[in-house]
Amino acid sequence: MAQDTTVPKLNFEYWLDKAIEWGQATTLESQKDVCLHLPQLQEFLHQLYETIKLLGSTIAIQQFPLIGQLLGRLCWNPFVIGYDESQKTLMLCLCCLYSSEPQNAVELKANSWIRSLLCHLLCSSKWESNEAETSTFVSALGYTSADYYCHLVKNMVISLITELRENQFNGLKIQESTSASRVNAVSIFCVPLITLPDLTPLLETLLFYHGGSSKEILSSEFLEAVNEAFLKKKISLSESAVFSLWLRHLPSLEKATLHLLDQLFSIQLNSLEEVAHVIKDSLLPQAASHPAIFRIVNEIFKNALMETDGTSEVMTIIQVFTHLFLQAHQNEYKQHKFPLKAYFPYHHQHLVRALIRRPFELPTAYWSQHVKHISDMVKALVEDINIGSLIGLFEIWYLVACFGEWLDIAAEQLLKAAVEPDAVLWLLAFHYCPKNENQQRTQTMVEAEAVYNHLMMLFSCADLSLKDLEAAVHRIRGIEQCCNQRLTAHLLINFLLFSPGGHKLAQECMYHITETTDTGKEVYNLLIRTAYRFNHSGKENQRTVKLLNELLQKLTLKV
Question: Which Pfam families match (predicted)?
Fold first, then answer.
């Protein structure tokens, strides 16, 4: 069978021209240009390595006869070999081109040339000096080459930090001090060295630097590279430095938020503790203490929710983020704390204040009253004649959904406490069916009320059978509208968790619900939210907590 030698499209000529143009990057302009192109160059080198590995050295040289010139020039460019993994990728390319069994004089000469380049790169990676005078001088001082260059980098960093800080304190005398172009140039030259631990103090000083200009003084390439390295955990920055980065560079904040969502979607999360750990580790809830960051992150979450048709996974992530944000906001010093209106400027402030109250802040006996209070306020806003647009309706729905803990408590209170069912059922119906087109929400209320009345008749029965619950289970299966199905499942799950006879039927009934309806993920997310709240409240009996953990273990394999 003929070997497949399809070559991925590579912009080989472009990078060869660049390598010739740069030389060894001895001029200021060529150094700037190299730094600006380093991320794209590294990506090209990786593609080139994969191509050589695929084709083999002989065919690769036939396809790219000037490959030696390109690699040779790049190996002698200090900015290229100092950037991230470019040096490693260059070495891999050279190793792929090496002939293990040279057949002629050309291949022997090529092997010799490759060995010399590899030696050069290996020496460079150890900070070895090729200049005899420098080496002799360093030895006379009692240093190894590695020590000498390490101290050289540290001294350079200290010098630049001192220069930048002095410039900050000069205030209006900025013209007499470091120019904006000088600071911009420093930021560009940091790009290939960003992952060096000794450079971190300089990175943070640059991130805190603003000078006297209203325009961004740091290069966008620098800001993007710092953010990328932070997200990939290649560098460690202080929280305040990260916050400064996101405040001054919106694309970095957007990328960090999307990176968090991708991270949460790509792993199997078995508890809200895991979700909370990943979100908190991103530093976004802490950074959101600044209203500008909070509102931008919130908008991205809104878009993610709309793009995924309001999936329970995204909603749960938003609820955990909001909870962690409130924790960070409450921990802020009073003199630094922004008012709530700065975070929710377009919402009814009485409703915001009611929603942000944590359940543990109130006696359990007051929960049903508080839920009714929230429901009354939401209903009044929804029915307000001034709110005629879907956008206004969505904003109210989204605000309530962000504080979903009260929605879960509302469903519990329906079964556990003396509560006015109409108000609570309306709140739940609004959550699952915010639009009332063709009386959808009204129909949802009717369905939910029928299920609720059926479950309440069974609530006090200690000796229940699955047949007693069949009417509710069949109702879930028979409901065509997704919102009605999800609300009915929510009520039934709470019945199984909190009724005296529900525990022994929970696993069997849960199997019927998740196997015969599309509510599997909805049920799973409800259970992990409930487990999280119980584990942190200490108010529920261990029997319920044990049941929750058993149900979650069984459902984990299905979702």
Answer: Fanconi_C
Question: Which tokens sit at 172?
Answer: 């209006």
**What DSSP state is assigned to residue 7?**
P
Whether the CB-CB separation of 48 and 7 falls below 8 Å is answered with no
Q: Is the pTM of this model over 0.85?
A: no
What is the rounded CA–CA span in Å between residue 231 and residue 260? 9
Report helix angle 405-416 to 367-383, nearest 10. Answer: 120
Domain end call among 343, 375, 390: 343
Q: Mind listing the pLDDT tens digit for each residue in 360-405?
A: 888 888 898 999 999 999 999 888 755 556 778 888 999 999 998 9
- Secondary structure letter of residue 143 according to DSSP: -
CB of 86 closer than 8 Å to CB of 38: yes
d(CA 10, CA 324) in angstroms, rounded, equals 45
303-307 CB contacts, 8 Å cutoff, 24+ apart: 304/261, 305/398
- Amino acid, res. 105: A
Q: Provide the residue range defining the domain that includes 109.
A: 12-122
Query: Per the structure, how many domains does the chain have?
Result: 4
Helix (H) or strand (E) holding 167: helix 145-169
Identify the CA nearest to 379 among candidates 438, 318, 423, 412.
Answer: 423
